[in-house]
Write a structure and sequence with these properties.
The chain has 223 residues and is of the alpha+beta class. The protein is built from nine helices and seven strands. The strands form two sheets. The chain has a five-stranded mixed β-sheet with strand order 2-1-3-5-4. It has a two-stranded antiparallel sheet with strand order 6-7. α3 crosses α7 and α7 crosses α8. It starts with a strand and ends in an 8-residue tail after the last helix.
């Protein structure tokens, strides 16, 4: 529907499609949620018409940098902001400073981000996976993934996840947990609270939550 350049954390020129006020308003909403440090990781902001349950996604631009795409048409502000926060975790955790593209999958001890690479030592995903996934859980997840039984994996470990989609992969787990934490959803289990405790050890994530809650839509971030 439209592609915009992002330059220095601000919406730039139209690259493709139609320039509509509604699209710029979506960017303004995103800019009220994501602090400048997160927005500066982006090189492109895309709008698309959802054809399935996909309401947003993140990809790597050909020349480096991160592309954020948001589906148009979601009129529920809470759901829309949930998507934006969720995808922001992918923006942060899949940036070039966080992922090593030079490590082959066979040498990556953690979950290999197939379109990106292996989490760097000390990165957000490195800490997340070593604390909450590495070992028998990751091996069982790999087995269930090969068998097409992620739903069974979730049922057997439901208390570990904030909701079902989080069991899809380690990177979706942290994105779902991050969204629940930023939006202050009720904690479901001690395991989820422990995961939120990890998020609170990362200064960039603390900054994101504080910025969102002070600048984001009032109907979502109620005082």
């Amino acid at each position: 529907m439209a592609r915009y350049a992002v330059e220095g954390g601000a919406l730039g020129r139209l690259l493709e499609g139609q320039d509509r006020s509604a699209y710029r308003e979506l960017w303004s909403e995103y800019a009220s949620i994501a602090p400048p440090a997160t927005r500066r990781l982006l090189v492109e902001f895309d709008l698309f018409e959802p054809l399935d349950d996909t309401t947003g996604y993140v990809s790597r631009a050909a020349g480096g940098g991160v592309v954020l795409a948001i589906g148009v048409g979601d009129t529920n502000p809470i759901d829309r902001v949930d998507t934006m926060v969720h995808e922001s975790m992918h923006v942060i955790s899949l940036a070039a400073s966080q992922i090593d593209q030079g490590v082959p999958e066979v040498r990556c001890p953690l979950y290999f981000e197939r379109d990106y690479g292996c989490p760097r030592a000390g990165s957000i995903l490195d800490g997340w996976e070593r604390r909450f996934w590495l070992g028998p859980l990751l091996e069982e997840w790999r087995k269930r993934t090969r068998e097409g039984q992620i739903d069974r994996f979730y049922r057997e470990h439901q208390t570990l996840f904030v909701r079902e989609y989080a069991a899809t992969s380690p990177d979706e787990d942290i994105a779902e947990t991050f969204a629940a934490w930023v939006l202050d959803r009720p904690r479901l289990s001690s395991a989820v609270r422990a995961k939120e405790g990890y998020l609170q050890t990362r200064p960039e994530l603390i900054e994101f939550k504080a910025y969102s809650r002070s600048h984001g839509p009032s109907e979502v971030f109620k005082a």
